[in-house]
Specification:
The structure is a single chain. The chain is mainly alpha-helical and 151 residues long. The chain has 2 domains: 1-30, no CATH class; 37-149, Rossmann fold (3-Layer(aba) Sandwich). 54% of the residues lie in helices and 12% in strands. The chain has 7 helices and 5 strands. A 3-stranded parallel β-sheet has the order 3-4-5, with helices on both faces. The chain has a two-stranded parallel ribbon with strand order 1-2. Strand 1 (2-3), helix 1 and strand 2 form a beta-alpha-beta unit. Helix 3 (61-68) crosses helix 6 (114-130). The chain is globular, with a radius of gyration of 18 Å. The protein starts with a strand and ends with a helix. The relative contact order is 0.12.
Length: 151
């Protein structure tokens, strides 16, 4: 299931048709108020980041995935925040960026190993709590207090 209106949607739809893949679905962009429902309906997510964007952006969907307690396969560079989060919290698996065979193998691993998928999902939920708005605001507040106190 693909959700959204990304720039590659038309090409993916065409490829799906040409390959006769009847089990692939494309859904329209989900409004913000329905994201939780959308995220909760998936077993596993794919997170990818184009080469060269490491250190510049983190796809915001990662935090929604964590909050939903879902594991993911990340096709990203080694030196990015997604890789760090994945390793630190053991909440997903890493695929080699640009290697579709490895990506497919990692997806199949999670499909076949339900206990692993469940464990990664539980870890994702715990990781999501670390990135929740309230603890982050508290950390910033403590930092500001420390900076003001140092004056």
């Amino acid at each position: 299931v693909f959700v959204g209106e990304g720039v590659k949607k038309a090409a993916l739809e065409e490829q799906t048709r040409s390959l006769g893949l009847g089990n692939v679905r494309f859904l329209p962009y989900a409004p913000k108020e329905r994201l939780t429902e959308s995220f909760a309906s998936a077993d596993v997510f794919i997170v990818s980041l184009k080469k060269g964007l490491s250190g510049i952006i983190v796809p915001s969907k990662l935090y929604g995935i964590l909050a939903a307690g879902r594991p993911y396969v990340a096709a990203v560079e080694d030196d990015c925040e997604i890789t760090d989060i994945t390793r630190q919290y053991d909440c997903g698996v890493l695929a080699t960026l640009g290697d579709p065979a490895d990506l497919a193998e990692k997806i199949l691993t999670l499909y076949r190993d339900r206990p692993l998928t469940a464990r990664l999902g539980q870890n994702a939920r715990l990781a999501g709590l670390q990135f929740d708005r309230k603890p982050q605001v508290e950390k910033y507040f403590a930092l500001f207090q420390q900076l003001v106190g140092a004056r």
